[in-house]
Every structure is written in structure tokens, then in C-alpha cells.
Write a structure and sequence with these properties.
The complex is a heterodimer of chains A (386) and B (348). Chain A is α/β, with parallel strands linked by helices and 386 residues long. Chain A contains 14 helices and 13 strands. In chain A, helix 5 (165-172) packs across helix 7 (208-220) and helix 12 runs antiparallel to helix 14. The chains are: A alpha/beta (386), B mainly alpha (348).
Chain lengths: 386, 348
């Protein structure tokens, strides 16, 4: 019977309590690690072959702050590294905070440009006037780099799965629930499809990837996907995970699963990807080249100098070898009235990343260059920034 | 968190009378406390009073500022809401029309916290009693240290552990619960065999996270039970369990409630671990084994990056709701403590 307790034990215990509570407080403080960063794909060493000669510094100096889309963060990391190596005295800091947070930062003048997975809405453009952009200028959308969205699945024994927009829409809205559904069998006559339930996974966080994937479904299968394109997943049912990395991990883990994420996640974790039957002569497998081909069909709908794209033509392409599920990310800057102190650096940096050398330097990271005609327009727009 | 203050204050008969001198005496300065008790003592008193009341006022000001900020932003979001803020389950802040409500996320927050409490409180009390009354001293110290160490693990680590290790291992537990307790509705699974990234698994992870807080505070309370009470119980022929039941637990009851409320506060507000483990969806789902439901903190964390304008304000409105839930829970706990105090024997 240990009834005797001395003061020392008590003091120790009180000390321990103090330690516990302070540690607990510290733990509380660290809770806010935003999950938005998790969609930046595992850092891959890109080709650093961009020759310094292709970078014209043109008076670039000092610090350039930028924020926004995580989908282009890997490309940005590579571009910033190459640019800083070529132009001494320049620091470019791109924070992958998410497109929405990036646009908000841009509107309040905290960053010189923002990265976004979607063109700004009119209401957002209005908020850039007189705040971020002086002299009557306004924020404009400059398409910069594209990436294919892969549909990854986990179905033992089934390779080369072919789906079309209609079946994809029915799978992701819960109308098709088994892998041996007649609609899937019709597209895969030779495959031995198991009678497994389909487990769909979508993003739990707001995401440009979701916005582009749902835009594809809405454009290519309007009868079966009746929701408007949205950063937040709209359809009912299915399961969710945070970030593209989270989705890829689930697909890797769960038999019978299907989800969507940037191509780099599928290649790095060797996840099987769906070939899309677009109505072209043969189903199209996902690749940067095939996606680039589809974006060639896209049209500029912004009024100059704004270069917002309408990807509907890309989503519904029937061109042979064109992969329709694509994402094009934009840089957002002012057409007029950019901050004078950062303008030379801004123009010089954007000129480099939109140049052929800059565009090709990130192709090994799962991005594809803009089609040549669009690239010319982008370069003209950038040179006219003031 | 102010809850432990009134409960952990030891009964006065065991406390040496040193508190009244604390403010004035300053032996660290190398002077005798007797000599300057009339001079610097008064000034020290004033300084200490100013500093401590200043800290108290500062806390109130900060709380008021947070509440004001949340309210202002929340009002603009709620006025733009096309759904009913209290009864809508959906959270569509990017859609047109904007429709969102806290029905699902508030329910999920409370459900996951309740699951965590149901698991953590009994276990924590067991650990605390073992450390204070059963374990040999050396083991008690080591165990106390290990439990305290749990509190130092960052929540994202709990989240990763939950998502990568616990989730696959919960499959069997879920199947068993569904098979034998499916009739309770709560443990019914709509789709058996899905990944258990559910509110139940979240509750288990949260339980482990709040365990050290509840254990540490309850242990302190149990160690402060007057020895006279314990000896009296034993002298009357009580076994050790009867002694704990009649002397230790009644004395510590209000402290146990305080400890639980500290844990509950943490469980309600946990963000990263929930966001990593849960497969969220904006429906009210009381089948806690199904991968559905979501919590307020997790919703804010996962949507903040891609939200702008009203969408962001809507998340702040959700934050206000969490703030209010926490206030109500703490207020309720204080009421319970105040009512129980007279029966607890703490003043005996």
C-alpha cells in the first residue's frame, strides 16, 4: 500500500503537467499546416537543360513575389531555379497556396502575379482595378502551361481499360456501380472484367484539377453529368481524399477504385490509366503529347489583351491521338499599371517561361507546352505589359 | 484554457502558507524579504497586480477581437447564403447560387468528438488511477512520462499514422461491429468493405490524441486526494477499489470533468489529423462506420486554399460556429463543476 507520497513526486508531476500543457499548446499551434500544398507532386528533378542563353534578364532585379495554383508549382520551381541561376540578384518566390488564395493575394497587391488553374471571373477582374493594377489597368489571364489529367484505376488483371466520357460521367455520378457493367463491357470486349464494386475517389479540397475534370465531364457528357464545373466536387456519393497525392495513394491501396489526378502521380506510382474513347479512330492513352494536341483545338475567348481560353473544343475533341482531359494553368498579371519596381523582373520572367526553352524545360515533369499559335499570342501579350 | 485553475487548487489544509508573500518577496535579488517588505514590497505588489490584471484583460480583448472578426465576416457570408445556414447540409460555396449550411459539418464535429470521448475518458482515467494508486513508483514515473510524450506528437503525424496504418487495420473491427452491432443503427454499414476512412476511425485517432491531456490532469487530481480520506476509507474496511470509488473519485469528479473538457476542446478543433484520415462528404451520416460526414475544422482546412470572397467568408462563419460550440461546451462544463463542487468533498 503506497499511501505515502512526498512532495518531490508532486513537484515532478506538476512539472510534467506544465511540460504537457506547453507541448499541447505547441501542438495546437502547428495544426494549421494547410493541406493545399499536398497537391504539389513529389518533387522530380526536371531537366535543367534550359540554357542560360535563352534567358534575357533585361534589368530583372530584386524580389518578385507570386502565389497561387499548386498544379503549376513543380513547373514554377524549375523555372525559378533556372531563371535565378541565369540572372543574378533576382529572387522569385512562388507560393503554392491554391488558385483562390493566389488571386486574393494578387487583388490585394501582395504578389506581382498569381498562378491560377482557371481564368478569373468578371467579379474578380473588377477587384483588381485600382488595387493591384493602377492607371486604369486590370488583371488579365495569360495561359502558360498545360497538363493532362489522368484517370487512374486499380483493377487486378485489367490493363488498357477503355472508357468514354459517358461511362466516366456515369461512374463518377454513381450510375454505374460495378466493373462488369454492360456499358464498360461494351467498350472492353476483350477484357476480363471482375464483378467488383466501383469505388470512386474525388478531391476533398477545392482544386483546379477537379474544376477541369468536371468541366470535361460537363462538356463531353452533358446528359450524364448535369452539374456545373466546379472546384469543389458536386456529385453525391463516392469517397474523397485530400490532394492529388491522397487520391493516388487511395487508388494504389483500394481494389476496384478509380480517380483523377495529374499524370505525374500516375507515372511515379505506376498506376494504370484509362484510355479515353473520344470518337477518334482509336482510344487515346494519356500523355503530354496527346493532351497538347487537344489544346490545339481550344479557342481564346478573352478580349485582348486577356487570353482566357475556352477548352470546350479540347474536351470534346475527336482528333486522332488527342487526349481530351486537360488542364491549362494561367498566370494573372496587370495589363497596365503593374508595380514599377517589379515590372522588369515580371516581364523578363514571364517572357522566359513562355519561351520555347522555358516551356520545354518542364516537359519531363508532366507538363506540355502551349500550341505554337497560342504561344505567339502569349509572348506578344507579355511584351505589352506595362 | 482556464478550466484546471479552480480544480487543481489544492485544499488549503495541505498547502503551506506561502502564496500571500509571493508577490512582494524577492529573495532572488539577494536581499532579505523582511528588509524590503515595506519598500519594494508595495511597489512589487502594484507591478504584479498590474501585470496579472493586464494579462487577464489582454485575454478578454483578444477573445472579443476574434469573436468580432468572425461575426463580421460570417454575417456577410450568411446574408449571401441561398440555403438555410443552420439546416442545410451541403457546402457549395463555389456554385451559383451559393448554398451552404452547418448541419452536416457541425454534426460530424460533434459525432467524432463524442466517439473520441467515449473511448478516451475511461482509458485515461484508468491510466491516471494506475499511475496514482496502483503502479510501483518507478513504473508510474515511466508511464507518466510516456503518456506525456504522446502529447508532443504533431497532429499531422497522428493523421498520417491514422491514414496509412490504422485505416487498413480497422477493416476487421468495422466488419465485426457491423455484424454484431449493426442493429444499433450507429454501427450499421451501408457499403460493407469500403475503406474505413470514417468518423469512427477519426474518433479513434482523436481519442489517442486527447488521451495525454485527460490523463495528465486527472492524475494530478487523484494525487491530491487528502490522505486522511483514503486512510479513513481503508480503516473502515474498504478494499482498494472501494477506497478509490468512495474517496478518490468523488473528490476528483470536478477535476475529471475539467480534464475531459480540455480533451473535448482539442477533439472538436482538430484539423490535420481529421483531414488526412476522413473521406469527407457533406451529408449528415450517423452510420459512423461509413466513409462520410465531415467536421468544421477539416472543412476549413481543406477548402481555404481555393476559396475566395464569399466562399472564404462562409468558412469563417463555420469557424464562428466552432467557436460557439466550444464556448457552450466549456460553459456547460463549468456549470456542472459548480453544481458538483458542494458534493465532491473537496472542501471537507
Amino acid at each position: 500500500m503506497k499511501l505515502q507520497r512526498n512532495g518531490r513526486t508532486k513537484a515532478l508531476a506538476i512539472g510534467a503537467l506544465a511540460v504537457v500543457s506547453s507541448l499541447t499548446l505547441a501542438a495546437c499551434g502547428s495544426d494549421n499546416n494547410s493541406s493545399s500544398n499536398s497537391s504539389s507532386s513529389p518533387a522530380a528533378a526536371g531537366s535543367s537543360a534550359a540554357s542560360a542563353s535563352s534567358i534575357a534578364c533585361n534589368g530583372a532585379t530584386g524580389q518578385l513575389l507570386a502565389a497561387g495554383s499548386t498544379a503549376q508549382q513543380n513547373a514554377m520551381t524549375q523555372w525559378v531555379k533556372d531563371f535565378q541561376a541565369a540572372c543574378s540578384g533576382v529572387t522569385i518566390n512562388y507560393q503554392g497556396t491554391g488558385s483562390g488564395a493566389g488571386i486574393t493575394s494578387f487583388q490585394t497587391g501582395k504578389v506581382a502575379f498569381a498562378g491560377s488553374d482557371a481564368a478569373m471571373k468578371a467579379a474578380d477582374v473588377a477587384k483588381t482595378q485600382g488595387t493591384a493594377c493602377q492607371n486604369g489597368g486590370k488583371g488579365i489571364n495569360i495561359p502558360m502551361i498545360g497538363g493532362p489529367i489522368a484517370i487512374g484505376y486499380n483493377l487486378p488483371g485489367v490493363t488498357n481499360l477503355v472508357l468514354d466520357a459517358k461511362t466516366l460521367a456515369q461512374i463518377f455520378t454513381g450510375k454505374i456501380t460495378k466493373w462488369d457493367d454492360p456499358a464498360i463491357k461494351a467498350l472492353n470486349s476483350s477484357a476480363n472484367l471482375p464483378s467488383l464494386p466501383i469505388q470512386t475517389f474525388h478531391r476533398s479540397d477545392g482544386s483546379g484539377t477537379t474544376a477541369n475534370f468536371t468541366a470535361y465531364l460537363a462538356a463531353a457528357a452533358p446528359a450524364d453529368y448535369t452539374f456545373a464545373p466546379n472546384k469543389l466536387w458536386q456529385a453525391k456519393g463516392g469517397q474523397a481524399a485530400a490532394g492529388s497525392a491522397g487520391l493516388a495513394a487511395q487508388v494504389k491501396q483500394v481494389q476496384g477504385s478509380i480517380s483523377y489526378f495529374e499524370l505525374s502521380y500516375a507515372t511515379q506510382q505506376s498506376i494504370s490509366t484509362v484510355q479515353v474513347n473520344t470518337g477518334a479512330s482509336a482510344p487515346v492513352a494519356v500523355s503530354t503529347a496527346a493532351a497538347s494536341k487537344a489544346v490545339g483545338d481550344a479557342k481564346v475567348v478573352g478580349t485582348a489583351p486577356d487570353l482566357a481560353l475556352d477548352l470546350k473544343a479540347a474536351y470534346t475533341t475527336k482528333t486522332d491521338g488527342a487526349y481530351p482531359i486537360v488542364l491549362v494553368t494561367y498566370e494573372i498579371a496587370c495589363d497596365k499599371g503593374n508595380a514599377a519596381s517589379t515590372l522588369p523582373t515580371l516581364k523578363s520572367f514571364l517572357t522566359y517561361i513562355s519561351s520555347t526553352a522555358g516551356q520545354n524545360s518542364v516537359s519531363s515533369l508532366g507538363y506540355f507546352p502551349l500550341p505554337a499559335a497560342l504561344q505567339t499570342q502569349v509572348q506578344q501579350t507579355i511584351s505589352s505589359l506595362s | 484554457m482556464e478550466t484546471p485553475r479552480e480544480t487543481s487548487a489544492p485544499p488549503s489544509d495541505r498547502e503551506p502558507h506561502k502564496t500571500p508573500n509571493l508577490a512582494g518577496s524577492s529573495p532572488r535579488r539577494g536581499r532579505s524579504s523582511l528588509a524590503d517588505s515595506s519598500g519594494t514590497g508595495r511597489r512589487g505588489d502594484a507591478i504584479f497586480k498590474f501585470a496579472s490584471s493586464g494579462s487577464g484583460i489582454l485575454l478578454l480583448v483578444i477573445m472579443a477581437a476574434i469573436a468580432a472578426f468572425l461575426t463580421v465576416r460570417a454575417i456577410s457570408a450568411i446574408s449571401a447564403d441561398h440555403g438555410n445556414f443552420l439546416t442545410t447540409s451541403d457546402w457549395q460555396t463555389q456554385a451559383d447560387p451559393i448554398t451552404f449550411g452547418i448541419a452536416a459539418i457541425a454534426t460530424g464535429t460533434i459525432v467524432s468528438a463524442v466517439v473520441a470521448m467515449v473511448i478516451a475518458v475511461p482509458v485515461a482515467l484508468g491510466i491516471a488511477l494506475f499511475i496514482s494508486h496502483y503502479a510501483p513508483r518507478r513504473i508510474a514515473q515511466a508511464l507518466g512520462y510516456v503518456v506525456d510524450l504522446l502529447a508532443a506528437v504533431p497532429s499531422i503525424v497522428f493523421g498520417l499514422w491514422g491514414a496509412l496504418f490504422l485505416v487498413p487495420h480497422m477493416l476487421g473491427v468495422n466488419a465485426w461491429l457491423n455484424q454484431y452491432f449493426g442493429w444499433t443503427y450507429v454501427f450499421h454499414q451501408n457499403e460493407p468493405g469500403t475503406q474505413p476512412r470514417s468518423l469512427f476511425t477519426v474518433g479513434v485517432v482523436l481519442a489517442i490524441m486527447i488521451l495525454p491531456i485527460i490523463t495528465a490532469v486527472s492524475r494530478e487530481i487523484f494525487l491530491q486526494v487528502p490522505r486522511a480520506h483514503e486512510e479513513a476509507a481503508l480503516a473502515l474496511g474498504a478494499t482498494r477499489w472501494e477506497m478509490i470509488r468512495t474517496a478518490v473519485i468523488p473528490f476528483g469528479r470536478s477535476g475529471i470533468i475539467s480534464a475531459s473538457m480540455l480533451g473535448l476542446g482539442r477533439a472538436l478543433g482538430e484539423t490535420m489529423a481529421v483531414a488526412t484520415v476522413l473521406s469527407p462528404s457533406y451529408v449528415i451520416n450517423l452510420h459512423i462506420l461509413d466513409p462520410a460526414g465531415s467536421t468544421i475544422a477539416q472543412t476549413i482546412a481543406s477548402q481555404f486554399g481555393e476559396s475566395q470572397g464569399t466562399g472564404r467568408d462562409a468558412l469563417i462563419a463555420a469557424g464562428l460556429v466552432l467557436f460557439v460550440i466550444t464556448l457552450v461546451v466549456n460553459g456547460g462544463a463549468r456549470m456542472i463543476i459548480a453544481r458538483r463542487k458542494e458534493y465532491s468533498g473537496a472542501d471537507a
